[in-house]
Specification:
RNA_pol_sigma-70-like, 9 helices, transcription, RNA_pol_sigma70_r2, 71% helix, 191 residues
């Protein structure tokens, strides 16, 4: 069987493979045509007696992957405006960050330092213990207590006389009242 006869004989199988890859009949036909063109151009690299079917299926698959890569939009990260990476915070996000900032400032200094070093800076507990001259167990305990306290404060589990809770509740109530009245709550965030 000649090379061209083998190409013609395998076309139905290539169409099935192409259709399974592209899930579009027209795109599948184009893919098969491109793969056959590639095979004809590389005809001299095929070794007679080896698996022609596998060779053709590999060409088709590689052509599909190449086409995907060509269609994928690429941009140098330095050319993308910084605004593409971030979205402006909503009022609720601003409130949550303000709550978190206030809660962080209320933590004992050793717990706040441990939390920042482990969570934000990605330091290991061992490195934290060495940096703060304490045992590893103490470092872990400080981070655990800081997380637990922040979680309690942020979820509203505070004593009824807690000044932070009272202030945050008053601010949230004022924002809700302004929203119900159809007014903006932007000016409340400024105070």
């Amino acid at each position: 069987m000649t090379f061209h006869d083998q190409v013609i004989a395998i076309l139905p199988k290539l169409r099935v493979q192409a259709l399974s890859l592209t899930r579009n009949r027209a795109a599948a036909e184009d893919l098969v045509q491109d793969a056959v063109c590639n095979a004809l151009a590389a005809q001299n690299s095929f070794i007679p007696g080896t698996n022609f079917s596998a060779w053709m299926h590999r060409i088709l698959r590689n052509r599909f992957i190449s086409d995907l890569r060509k269609r994928r939009e690429t941009t140098d990260i330095d050319d993308v405006p910084a605004s593409s990476f971030a979205s402006p915070a909503t009022h609720e996000d601003s409130l949550a960050l303000k709550d978190l900032s206030m809660a962080l400032s209320r933590l004992p200094a050793d717990q706040r330092e441990a939390l920042v070093m482990v969570v934000i800076q990605g330091m290991s507990y061992e490195a934290l213990a060495e940096a703060t001259d304490c045992a590893v167990g103490t470092a872990k305990s400080r981070v655990f207590r800081a997380r637990r306290q922040l979680e309690a404060w942020m979820s509203g589990e505070l004593p009824t006389n807690d000044k932070l809770r009272v202030k945050v509740k008053a601010l949230r109530d004022a924002m809700d009242a302004r929203r119900r009245a159809g007014k903006s709550s932007d000016d409340l965030m400024l105070s």
